[in-house]
Each structure stands twice: as structure tokens, then as C-alpha cells.
# Entry
Amino acid sequence: MGLSPQLLAGQAPSAPLDERAAKRLAGAFSLRRLPRGHMLCHQGVPDGSEYLLVSGRAKSTATDAEGREVCLGLHAGPEVLTPHMARMSDGHSMVDITLLDDAEIASIPADALLLLMVEDAAIRDWGNAIMRAELARKTAREWALAALDAAGRIRWLRQHCPEHEAQFPHALIASFLGMTPVTFSRVRASA
# Structure
């Protein structure tokens, strides 16, 4: 059983794939089940893949200068995980992506996807739409962290990711919002 072309087509609503392009792209992905706790990529280690979280949940984290884990992304399938171009620096991953559940993952070598994008305008538009959506997500979170107080950040999360509060551990959400778990717990009820 392979990856559903319809699942891929739904990942970039602003650049829908036609049936031919969706089938071609889906056929290039490999699908596998991985256990909870599996790390798809490691901070500081080369990684050459693009990932689609078909089912399950994952977190994107980085380790700060003091050795603390900082949450940069919360993911619930089906979702394209942070694109290769956005998570790599000098050929090395800037983040760890860890599965929070047993999950189904589709992957494709980043170079193979790039080649498909060069060859096929529909796939290129799809890939570019994925990158634009990632840039918009990262920019919105960066703005919320810089411009909003703790209560405002919680309201922002509820507006932009309404299901996250029920899906993810509150300690991860607190880190994602740039606050301690204690602050999150204290402010959450009044936000």
C-alpha cells in the first residue's frame, strides 16, 4: 500500500495537484511505520530527506546553549514536516524531529523532490506553496513571541492552532510559546 495522492494534494490547498502530478509525486515517496520516540532527524547531523507525517504527532526541537530542549514546532498528521531547505544549515539539521506517537511517515530524498519540481510545473507549484506556508507559520510564531505577552501568545495559539492545546503536552506548548510550564498553567485559565 502506497501513499495516497489525495493526501499529498491536500497539503497545499493554494496549489492543488492534478491527478497525474499527485500520482507521480505519491509514487516517489516511501512509506513506513515508526515507533514513538524515533528521531527523524538530529540537530547537527546531515539529513537528506523530506518528510510527511501521515499519522501521529511529532515535535521539532533544538537544544539551546545551556543544553535545554526548546520546542520550535508541534506537528499532527497529516502534515508536511518542516521542509529540508528550512531546517538545514550547511548540510546539517538545525532541529531534532521526534515522534510523539507510533506514526506513519512518508519520505523522499530532498534531491529527488527537487528534480520532480524542476520537471513538473504542478509539483513545483505544490512544493513552493509548502515553502510559502512554512515561512508564513514561522513568521507568525516569531511575531507572536516578540509582540505578545503570555496571555496573548496563548490566545494566538488558540486562534491559529486550535487543536494543539488538547493534542500536545502542556510543557511542550509552553516551550513553543516561549514561557515556562508554570507561567503557561497560571495564565492559561485567564487567556
User: Anything to note?
Assistant: The first strand starts at residue 30 and ends at 34. The longest helix spans residues 121-147.
